[in-house]
Fold this sequence. Notes:
Helix content: 55-70%
Number of helices: 22
Radius of gyration: 29 Å
Shape: elongated
Bound molecules: zinc ion
Structural class: mainly alpha
Strand content: under 5%
Strand order of the largest sheet: 1-2
Distance between the termini: 58 Å
Amino acid sequence: MDYSGLFPDETLTSFIVRQLYFCGYPHIRIAQNDFWGSDNRQINSPFPSLIPWISDNFNIERNVLLKNHTSLNYFKPFLGQSKYQLVKQALLTGDVEFVQKWLGITSNRVKAGGSLYYCLECANEDLKQYGVAYWHRKHQMYGLIICPVHGQELRETQVTRRHVALPPQQHCELKESAVLLPNHFANFSHWALTQSDFDMFDYERLTNCYRLELFNKEFACKSLRIRQKCLREDLQDHYAAELKHAAWQTLFTTNKTYPYPCQLFYNYHDCHFHPAKHLALMAYLFSTPESFLSKYYCANEELESHFNSHTVKRERTNNTVKNKLILNLFRQGKSLRNIAKQMKLSVTAVKSKVVAGGGKVKSRAAKVFEPDRRAILRKLMMGVPTGDIAKGFNLSTGAIEQVLTQHPELVELRKYLRFRAKQMTHRKLLSKAVKEFPRYTRNQLKKKI
Ligand SMILES: [Zn+2]
């Protein structure tokens, strides 16, 4: 038996454990001390610091270890180039202190710890072919409960960080009935680990792709706003079996501002979410990674054509029928209040439709002259609060709001600007606190700001 190389898909932990077990030392601790001068090394980590040691002692290229025996590939498309390079360098040099943080494992609170997983059928095959059952990468991905190859429920072995363990080393008889149905999530996770179709995700394109598919499944309206509550409920139903596991409960944990999966659609510019969060939504929306990819590639173009067709349609139905009726009533001399009652709309809504259609309403808003209107628009675009603008122009807030309702795109923009402003303030406070108290934990920092 040749123990000097790694088996297909074997984790680094597994290889290290095998060296300790089969190196012929009388005790594992003696082996550890002899190998790397300490018996206190963290072995059971998805990203152990031992890449340089393995590479130097077994003459295996560091890049090969990284690519074929860690789950870096699984994280890569979600990381962005700069963070990816950072993590890669850290792993290649063995300086892994911040790797979990950079990968978003800490911030997403999805630290999978304390357990290693194996599949009985894979273990049987390994025993037959290699004489030893070892830990596979493909079974250790977050939230996996079945083997992506065999559909068998994964078995769990609890380990501490320094524990030295392998899967059970005896052949197990399998019951026919134990075979589960293929699981989309496991397939998508396995694909993420092994794919070479593309490099990094473009988040704009990715969320567009989700939105379009959610529209097809009636979880988004024509404007592609997502029905978050319905979606979350349906996702919970879909993953009911998985949600019995703690890892999935963590994945679905609600965050007050942006519960899952709503969080994937906002704030993606600055946070990166754990791949499992994306993969769970992908596997729910698409039947295969291939079908997802084909939609992903044409998402931006499809989004454009979606908006073209639906805006035209909406304008035709809404504007031409309802708005024309409102304008006609207005021209017949009916009061805004009467029209509002008849159309079951608010007076403000009727007023803005009349103004948008060229009707002259005797109101303060109508007295907003063109140069003022342009100046107001500029202020609105900068995100200045309507009340402040009103004060500056000596107009009512209602008048400013009316200008705003005539430009619905500004409403979205202002929402985003407000969000960014809030985020910037928060971030400034945070980085100040981090500098001031570098040794504080997340929770201590949270209390501080
Ligand atoms: Zn298997």
